[in-house]
């Protein structure tokens, strides 16, 4: 029987301080199931806090930027009622540059954060990322209280904040990989990945609730929130079961299902409680360029580039355009629905492309009929959020994990972090460009922005065509999806 090891390669680590303060949290008083739920909760709220702290810039755009008023029913003029240096005709461009600075730093930092996290205590690293993010978010808000009008100050804060924020995703994914197996991966990850949308909603509500007291408070409140959650993570997050004397007794059997290694029991059934495959003896960390050449990595990475461009355009500009959080609620539903669907049909690519193609008419319908009534606005926004965020959620979680543990790399645990960084890092570049392009294009009207979004979704779908063809061919060879053959005849 092969000895099971935690995902990360760091030496044995003592339990977190909270377990010394509350000894009843330790085994045998608390079982493995209890700790799995605790880890699920802590990683969920941790990443939700990251996203909540990203929300204030989009909430205060209408205060920082200029107000556009129509004159004589035809011409319009920009009234400089915003906050220097974001007032005037160049205001939207400068706000877009803030978004670009943050997201480029975030995407670059992502590639480094995964490697660093593999070599140090993930709990400490995650706490550092949260503390840095909280302090820098509050620092941005201090620009209001200290009457700062220097663009460089806000750009520097956003760049540093992006670097600290990039720590969050690799850490929480690695911890989840230590505690949870691969059975029902789409469902589990779909539900868990709703932390992004929940965080957006919390951030929107928190920032909006204090905006009338001054836009600086819209940053202070979410900043304090992530600092509080950071304390909980530091005190109670257990990175791996063996850190508190827990272990799994099931044998590891490599089962190749569609090129993905799954953890099974002695009976061959897939276990829900299991580790990601341990690194094979003598296997080194997979190289960056090698990971790019793995089957499916590049298509899904570029698909996520355009999918995340659309999602983050809404994340950063939708409140400026609509001031609603319904899109994020739809995102929660879409993430779960995409995960469950992909588990049922056992085809991540097919699920993703169907959601993407359906999102095109949903966005067009929203643009045309969204202003008819409040009911149609909410309904169409809910549908659009579900269809746009469904593939985004699926690719960044279940797909990344599938590709990072495929049989071709023999379960090399370090490949999971590398592949996840490539896919999400590439998607984050698209996320950086989306809001920037929206800032420039919105000056020509919102119809132009929606054309950009629809075109991006269409291009994202094109990258999945080879994946979808292979999935369909594989299912037919396995004797599944026979209705497709009947339909062709």
UniProtKB/TrEMBL annotation:
<dbReference type="GO" id="GO:0022857">
    <property type="term" value="F:transmembrane transporter activity"/>
</dbReference>
<dbReference type="InterPro" id="IPR020846">
    <property type="entry name" value="MFS_dom"/>
</dbReference>
<keyword id="KW-0812">Transmembrane</keyword>
<keyword id="KW-0472">Membrane</keyword>
<dbReference type="InterPro" id="IPR036259">
    <property type="entry name" value="MFS_trans_sf"/>
</dbReference>
<dbReference type="InterPro" id="IPR000849">
    <property type="entry name" value="Sugar_P_transporter"/>
</dbReference>
<dbReference type="InterPro" id="IPR011701">
    <property type="entry name" value="MFS"/>
</dbReference>
<feature type="transmembrane region" description="Helical">
    <location>
        <begin position="297"/>
        <end position="318"/>
    </location>
</feature>
<feature type="transmembrane region" description="Helical">
    <location>
        <begin position="449"/>
        <end position="468"/>
    </location>
</feature>
<feature type="transmembrane region" description="Helical">
    <location>
        <begin position="219"/>
        <end position="239"/>
    </location>
</feature>
<comment type="similarity">
    <text>Belongs to the major facilitator superfamily. Phosphate:H(+) symporter (TC 2.A.1.9) family.</text>
</comment>
<keyword id="KW-0813">Transport</keyword>
<feature type="transmembrane region" description="Helical">
    <location>
        <begin position="349"/>
        <end position="369"/>
    </location>
</feature>
<keyword id="KW-1133">Transmembrane helix</keyword>
<dbReference type="GO" id="GO:0055062">
    <property type="term" value="P:phosphate ion homeostasis"/>
</dbReference>
<feature type="domain" description="Major facilitator superfamily (MFS) profile">
    <location>
        <begin position="32"/>
        <end position="472"/>
    </location>
</feature>
<keyword id="KW-0762">Sugar transport</keyword>
<feature type="transmembrane region" description="Helical">
    <location>
        <begin position="415"/>
        <end position="437"/>
    </location>
</feature>
<comment type="similarity">
    <text>Belongs to the major facilitator superfamily. Organophosphate:Pi antiporter (OPA) (TC 2.A.1.4) family.</text>
</comment>
<dbReference type="GO" id="GO:0005789">
    <property type="term" value="C:endoplasmic reticulum membrane"/>
</dbReference>
<protein>
    <recommendedName>
        <fullName>Major facilitator superfamily (MFS) profile domain-containing protein</fullName>
    </recommendedName>
</protein>
<feature type="transmembrane region" description="Helical">
    <location>
        <begin position="152"/>
        <end position="180"/>
    </location>
</feature>
<feature type="transmembrane region" description="Helical">
    <location>
        <begin position="192"/>
        <end position="213"/>
    </location>
</feature>
<feature type="transmembrane region" description="Helical">
    <location>
        <begin position="124"/>
        <end position="146"/>
    </location>
</feature>
<feature type="transmembrane region" description="Helical">
    <location>
        <begin position="375"/>
        <end position="395"/>
    </location>
</feature>
<dbReference type="Pfam" id="PF07690">
    <property type="entry name" value="MFS_1"/>
</dbReference>
<feature type="transmembrane region" description="Helical">
    <location>
        <begin position="32"/>
        <end position="50"/>
    </location>
</feature>
